[in-house]
């Protein structure tokens, strides 16, 4: 791909990467590469100049990888994000299950779970009534081994589910999904879903937590060890985008495969909106098809990836050595 852009001494071109996927008129992911050693000011000007184009391409392609854009730390990543001038979705106001730590106002660690823990495919916070529209990821330090971020197009997955198990898809669309989990009293760094109930709910005490759960229409039960078990209201499993595409928008795969720790049983974490069970055989098909459609982002230190949260699921592979991937959310 030979498209090139010249502006303020920055050269940017669209490139191909190994195993890049092709879907009709889209690529997954779309990849931009800048000339190495590009200065930060030039990057900010280029991003501002091409913001509308990138936003359009993101919606079509589902994910955009930026390589060699001169981002080296959390401050540079923060400046990269601010060039788009999109409204932020802060970690504090989110209902994310993951333990994270802020580096800047907009930037936080992606997940503090141990390197051996797999984080399976999901749409960010689709297990809650409140979720971001886009996600930025920045590879501050690539792992010595493993550590890829798997991504999967949910519109393509939905098309395949319609062919393979249409009854399951119809039930998802008509009934919706409810999620159940138990949040610890204190952050549990050994779990990918280890964020405490106080942090998750931005609550200083039990009364504030219950007031927020009531506003969100959750069901809840306090456990003897101080942890909090909750079940969501009925949430959608299929979402219609404004361009007419349907996407398999949920956290079914992540919950079924990965919500397993000292407090949670992943096989009891999901059900249909009418409380009827979801068949393991159907989930096996969902997982198989999603795995076949997955692209593993081959992180290089300095890479930034922009993900459309409505179109694309993401996760995390286990890794060896030090791996630092930072994230930011867009409202």
Task: Produce the secondary structure layout.
Elements: E1 4-7, E2 10-14, E3 21-23, E4 26-28, E5 30-34, H1 40-61, E6 63-67, H2 74-82, E7 108-109, E8 119-122, E9 134-141, E10 145-146, E11 149-153, H3 154-164, H4 166-175, E12 177-183, H5 197-200, H6 206-216, E13 219-222, E14 228-231, E15 239-240, E16 246-247, H7 252-258, E17 270-272, H8 280-293, E18 295-297, E19 304-308, E20 312-316, E21 319-320, E22 324-330
Parallel strand pairs: 5-6
Antiparallel strand pairs: 1-2, 2-5, 3-4, 6-19, 7-22, 8-20, 9-19, 9-22, 10-21, 11-18, 11-20, 12-14, 12-17, 13-14, 15-16
Helix pairs in contact: 3-4, 3-8
Identify the notable features of this structure and list them briefly:
single chain, 331 residues, 4-stranded antiparallel beta sheet, 8 helices, 27% helix, globular
């Amino acid at each position: 791909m030979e498209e090139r852009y010249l502006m303020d001494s920055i050269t940017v071109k669209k490139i191909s990467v190994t195993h890049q996927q092709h879907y009709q008129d889209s690529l997954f992911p779309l990849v931009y590469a800048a000339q190495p050693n590009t200065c930060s000011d030039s990057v900010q000007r280029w991003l501002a100049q091409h913001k509308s184009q990138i936003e359009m391409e993101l919606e079509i392609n589902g994910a955009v990888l930026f390589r060699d854009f001169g981002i080296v730390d959390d401050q540079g990543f923060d400046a990269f994000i601010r060039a788009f001038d999109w409204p932020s979705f802060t970690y504090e106001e989110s209902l994310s299950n993951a333990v994270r730590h802020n580096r800047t106002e907009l930037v936080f660690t992606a997940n503090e779970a141990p390197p051996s823990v797999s984080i399976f495919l999901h749409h960010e916070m689709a297990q809650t009534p409140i979720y971001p529209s886009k996600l930025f990821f920045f590879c501050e330090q690539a792992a010595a081994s493993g550590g890829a971020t798997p991504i999967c197009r949910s519109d393509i997955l939905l098309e395949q589910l319609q062919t393979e198990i249409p009854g399951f898809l119809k039930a998802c669309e008509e009934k919706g999904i409810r999620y159940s989990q138990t949040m610890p009293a204190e952050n549990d760094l050994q779990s990918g879903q280890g964020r405490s109930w106080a942090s998750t709910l931005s609550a200083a005490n039990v009364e504030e937590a219950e007031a927020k759960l009531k506003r969100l229409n959750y069901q809840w039960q306090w456990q003897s060890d101080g942890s909090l078990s909750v079940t969501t209201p009925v949430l959608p499993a299929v979402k219609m985008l404004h361009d007419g595409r349907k996407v398999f928008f949920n956290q079914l795969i992540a919950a079924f495969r990965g919500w397993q720790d000292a407090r949670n049983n992943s096989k009891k974490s999901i059900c249909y909106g009418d409380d009827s069970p979801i068949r393991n055989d159907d989930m096996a098909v969902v997982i198989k098809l999603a795995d076949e459609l997955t692209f593993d982002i081959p992180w290089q230190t300095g890479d930034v990836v922009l993900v459309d949260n409505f179109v694309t699921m993401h996760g995390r592979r286990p890794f060896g050595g030090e791996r630092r991937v930072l994230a930011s959310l867009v409202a």
